[in-house]
Design brief:
The structure holds two protein chains of two kinds. Chain A is an alpha/beta fold. Chain A is about 30% helix and about 25% strand. In chain B, helix 2 links the parallel strand 2 and strand 3. The chains are: A alpha/beta, B alpha/beta. Strand 7 (about 170-175) of chain A pairs antiparallel with strand 7 of chain B, so a sheet runs across the interface.
């Protein structure tokens, strides 16, 4: 059975509608959302209400968390002070727009969703703010999946879709204990694990303006990265009309990789 | 290069600290003393030890301290950690232990304890109470090598000295590799990553302490003489 995984909708209603239409047109009934329903984009209430209406299981993203709990991530989440100021502006605008009912919905979202050996998170099992980039240290990437007790980890947050398979891993270990003359040695054989990043519906950053999501075939394990056209201009105009930073519209129209991303992508903010 | 002494889990025991200082003075070339947290605890009045650590005697090997699990519990309970409280201590030892801990440390020491760092990076070594993930992270020789490697990688160090488990061991990750296959919009690519030689060292706690020579990478696990026996010797 095929199921679709979507992430990082970012209050972009035109993109969300286009992606849902694409999923529906393939007869896919199961959809999982990895959060960030709001932030950056101009239609936060409309997107939250659409997800509620469709009853799509959703985990909480970093923007969803910050709108409820306040800006807890430190400035390390941003590559520059200008980016941080823009992010804060969007945060305050979104918080002012969202209805109390929709805020309550975001507050109730779980950190993770699990279906058998499939784990669904926004950033990583550790934090909604951690980026699992495709070139992250392979052992650390495997640790995130394995420690969470999953075989396949679905994540978003980077806005770049990818499928990463980690296999044939091993570590040789030598242990010397106190009062032990000869150290012992053993080898740890590591299991094969996968990370599937669903990309972004509402704010793609993979070099194209098309919305992205993934389809996973439960029976074969095959993953398809989908790109969907939508009316980008309509959303860009709405961003400008709403008074949000114009750079958001410019970035959206190009699908640029420039984003509010920490320089150290593995950093987990503890603030 | 001078050797390091690594100590943890004194838990307010000034006699033990003085005994370790005495033994360090008898060692050659130990000029650095790192106290990896748990300076305090609920069993002793900790004020005398804290005063000594904050104002060392001239002859002492000068201590460099970081905070540990017990300090984290106290600081949380006293409002230094936002909305968090000493939940870990409550869960492990009950409400009475929280009261004992509050009684064991004068409020005058709280700001100093709050100023202590999470860890030190010295040369290519990380000196931390728990791990790079959390002060309560209990790394042992039985912890998965995958987790240990992650804790080393987070700090990009070759050696991680940890105290939380209160055990003495050296675990070396010395070979291995993993294959990574990535498919994205640009295509598919494969790479292989090898493990650099890296170590996690449990320094022990309480009477157990560790000497480390950064020049030779030699580690010596030691146990301090019981101060209650040592103090009476020769003066009977």
């Amino acid at each position: 059975m095929n199921h679709a995984v979507i992430s990082c909708l970012h209050a972009n209603l035109a993109a969300v509608e286009a992606v849902l239409n694409d999923i529906d047109s393939q007869g896919i009934k199961t959809i999982t959302c990895l959060g960030d329903l709001v932030g950056y984009g101009p239609q936060p209430n409309e997107v939250v209400e659409l997800m509620r209406q469709r009853e799509i299981p959703t985990c909480q993203g970093c923007w969803d968390e910050d709108i409820i709990d306040g800006l807890n991530a430190c400035e390390c989440s941003y590559p520059s002070q200008l980016a941080e100021r823009r992010g804060h502006r969007a945060h305050h605008w979104t918080a002012a727009q969202l209805t109390e009912e929709n805020k309550a919905f975001l507050a109730e979202l779980p950190m993770t969703l699990r279906r058998d050996k499939l784990l669904f998170v926004h950033g990583s099992p550790n934090s909604q703010h951690e980026y699992l980039l495709p070139d992250m240290n392979a052992y650390s990437a495997l640790e995130r999946v394995e420690t969470a007790g999953a075989e396949t980890l679905f994540c978003g947050h980077t806005h770049q879709p990818y499928v990463r398979e980690l296999r044939q891993g091993s570590i040789r270990v030598k242990v010397q204990q106190r009062d032990q003359d000869i150290p012992t040695e053993h080898e740890l054989e590591l299991p094969m694990r996968r990370i599937v990043n669903a990309g972004s519906v509402g704010e793609p950053r993979h070099g194209s303006s098309k919305a992205t999501y993934v389809i996973h075939d439960d029976s074969t394990g095959e993953v398809t990265i989908r790109e969907v056209d939508y009316d980008v201009v309509k959303t860009c105009e709405a961003i400008v009309d709403a008074g949000l930073p114009v750079v958001f519209a410019w970035r959206l129209s190009h699908g640029f990789e420039y984003a509010e991303r920490a320089e150290d992508a593995s950093h987990v903010c503890e603030r | 290069m001078d050797r390091w002494a690594l100590v943890s889990g004194l838990q307010g025991d000034l006699d033990l600290y003085e005994q370790i200082q005495k033994e360090l003075k008898q060692q050659r070339g130990v000029a650095n003393l790192f106290v990896l947290g748990d300076l305090i605890g609920s069993q002793h009045n900790c004020n005398a030890l804290l005063e000594r650590l904050r104002q060392p005697h001239r002859a002492d090997v000068q201590p460099e301290c970081i905070y540990g699990w017990w300090e984290e519990q106290l600081l949380a309970e006293c409002g230094y950690r936002g909305e968090r409280k000493a939940d870990g201590l409550r869960e492990e030892q009950g409400e009475a232990a929280v009261g004992d801990l509050l009684a064991a440390v004068d409020a005058d020491h709280l700001n100093w304890l709050a100023s202590l760092q999470f860890g030190f990076i010295e040369l290519d070594c990380a000196l931390i109470h728990g791990s790079s993930a959390d002060v309560s992270d209990r790394l042992t020789e039985d912890t998965s090598a995958l987790v240990l490697l992650d804790r080393l990688t987070r700090l990009d160090v070759n050696r991680l000295f940890t105290a939380r488990c209160q055990r003495q061991f050296r675990l070396e990750l010395f070979s291995g590799s993993i294959q990574s296959h990535v498919k994205d919009h640009a295509g598919e690519h494969q790479s292989e990553q090898a493990i650099p030689k890296r170590s996690v060292i449990g320094i022990g706690g309480g009477r157990q302490y560790t000497l480390y020579d950064p020049a030779t990478d030699h580690i010596e696990f030691r146990i301090a003489e019981d101060p209650s026996h040592a103090s009476g010797r020769g003066f009977g």
